[in-house]
Design brief:
114 residues, alpha+beta, three-stranded antiparallel β-sheet, 4 helices, flat, succinate-semialdehyde dehydrogenase (NAD+) activity
Amino acid sequence: MTMMTATQALSVNPATGQTLAAMPWANAQEIEHALSLAASGFKKWKMTSVAQRAQTLRDIGQALRAHAEEMAQCITREMGKPIKQARAEVTKSAALCDWYAEHGPAMLNPEPTL
């Protein structure tokens, strides 16, 4: 759960009320820099082949599985989700990455107009 103050966002464990992290709000210059990086990344990503995009999804799925327990614990702390559900969420997310890596390229093929 995230709470906001005038100067920072607090990540709070909803079960215990413990503050997990405090993140300062970005200023205008930091926001502009982040937007610039995002625009630059988009320009590179749109030139990335479908095969490489699919591989990136496979890599993300693999990383999710490699860090599944750590991520599930984090989900539980930050959102109050029961650990069993958090583990299932990470597993499902990895499986979705795999599915879209496998089936996504076909979805991007042009379809003939009848």
